[in-house]
Write a structure and sequence with these properties.
Elements lengths: L2 E5 L10 E7 L6 E7 L9 E7 L4 H11 L13 E6 L12 H10 L20 H7 L3 E9 L3 H7 L8 H12 L3 E5 L32 H7 L3 E3 L2 H6 L5 E4 L23 H12 L6 E7 L1 H7 L3 H24 L3 E6 L3 E2 L2 E4 L22 E5 L6 E6 L4 E2 L3 E6 L8 E4 L1 H11 L5
Parallel strand pairs: 4-10, 4-11, 5-18, 6-7, 6-10, 7-9, 8-9
Antiparallel strand pairs: 1-2, 2-3, 5-17, 11-17, 12-16, 13-15, 14-15
């Protein structure tokens, strides 16, 4: 792999310097480009808030809009002046389609890697994340998710392991390595050793498989010794006053992902909006600014279950959190807000209800079992309905949408590889990469 840099004019921008990076994809002989315009003369982004809707493709955004505000309504994540499209393929010797670890690492570090890798390149070498760069440049940092806080996406921004399954080691690396000031989400089971259930009982009725199984000792005690205030519910989170907060709000993910009617529950005990709001109010106290990752995991997990109803709920939770960030960014014009996805899940299609599809010239391929048509769903503000048709229960290679607002958002217009999102954030914040 090689990289070279050239300066060129960037059409349509007052700024004339641009950096174009050429990468030779290993084993392919194909050169791919990522163009990141220099922002000389423009104010940098003091703060960056990046939202990752895990598994959220274009159709998912449409489903979330149709199911929550109707076709003429507008989601906060779509009401942004800049839009782009991210390509998500990994550098994996066996797979063409990315998982969340490789996809998250590309967004976090600007380096493509193999599926399952967290913060390392395709050769297993550690690569520095934008969160780590922000911290080196004096900024406060935070990780927020409805998944386990040690799951693939947040882990990609704050840890370096060869396999995403090493979640207790990831938690340990948060504390000893990247040291985010705010860590909020699920996954308490990875922080406590077996036999120590913490705040959430082992083997709960909703999922008897959940129980503490940490491999690195009692990491909550270690975090508290390092000055983290540990909280386990909404009231404790809102009352927290420390500059460092660890919040774990479930044994595993903050929901139960299953097919419809089979114990599927999307009702996080702490909303993503509340977690986002607390993270911002805590991190903004740093005079040098902050970097914050916020992930909604339910979109991906429910799409894996071909569960469109719960995708709609998870998407609403995400958009409420985006609204919190948008309000903050409008009051703090030095804040860049980005909404992206790591990959698409399910390759879903939104269709008319079957009674309206009966045309012998165009037979309907509705699938069977779990990937059969899902619905019907009502459209707010109308008397119409629609159904959702799932192609697969797995990830796909489809491009994913990107929207952005604030200083540096113009860098995210166009079509580009997922690694470009990292480049744009680093450039927008003027981070020193050394």
């Amino acid at each position: 792999m090689f990289r070279s840099t050239i300066l060129s004019l960037l059409a349509g921008h007052k700024v004339i310097a641009a950096v174009t990076t050429f990468t030779l994809a290993a084993g392919t002989g194909v050169a791919v480009t990522s163009q990141v315009p220099e922002l000389q003369g423009r104010r940098p982004a003091k703060n960056v808030i990046i939202f990752v809707g895990d598994g959220m493709g274009t159709s998912h955004r449409n489903l979330i809009r149709f199911g929550n505000v109707g076709p003429e309504g507008t989601l906060a994540m779509d009401d942004m002046p800049v839009a782009g499209r991210s390509q998500t393929f990994p550098h994996d010797p066996e797979a063409f389609v990315t998982d969340s670890a490789a996809g998250g690492t590309a967004l976090a570090t600007g380096v493509k890697t193999y599926n399952g890798a967290i913060g390392v390149d395709e050769n297993g070498k550690r690569v520095t994340s934008v969160l780590e760069l922000a911290a080196r440049n004096g900024k406060a940092t935070g990780l927020v998710t409805t998944a386990q806080v040690t799951d693939a996406t947040p882990a990609s921004f704050g840890a370096h392991v060869l396999d995403r399954s090493q979640q207790s080691l990831i938690a340990k690396q948060f504390l000893e390595g990247s040291k985010p000031q705010v860590i909020l989400g699920g996954g308490e089971d990875k922080w406590f050793p077996a036999g120590n259930p913490g705040a959430f009982p082992d083997q709960p009725a909703e999922d008897p498989t959940e129980k503490s199984a940490g491999t690195e000792g009692n990491l909550v005690e270690r975090a508290e010794a390092m000055g983290y205030e540990y909280v386990t519910n909404t009231a404790e989170l809102k009352a927290a006053t420390s500059k460092k907060i660890l919040g774990l709000f479930a044994n595993e993910e903050m929901f139960q992902q299953r097919p419809e009617g089979q114990g599927d529950v999307y009702k996080p005990t702490v909303s993503l909006a509340d977690m986002t709001s607390k993270a911002i109010s805590t991190l903004e106290k740093d005079r040098d600014g902050f970097f914050l990752l916020v992930e909604e995991e339910g979109i991906d997990e429910m799409a894996h279950q071909s569960n469109a109803g719960q995708v709609i709920k998870a998407g609403k939770n995400l958009d409420s959190a985006v609204s919190v960030a948008v309000r903050y960014a409008k009051a703090h014009r030095d804040t860049l807000v980005i909404v992206v996805a790591d990959h698409e899940t399910g390759s879903m299609a939104i269709e008319d209800v079957p009674a309206l599809q009966d045309d012998p010239k165009y037979p309907n391929e509705s699938g069977e079992g779990r990937t059969a048509e899902d619905g019907p769903f009502s459209v707010p503000g109308t008397d119409k309905q629609f159904v959702v048709d799932w192609t697969t229960a797995n990830h796909t290679a489809e491009d994913v949408p990107v929207t952005a607002m604030g200083p540096g958002s113009e860098l995210l217009s166009g079509v580009y590889e997922n690694t470009h999102v990292y480049d744009a954030m680093v450039q927008a914040m003027r981070l020193n990469r050394r």
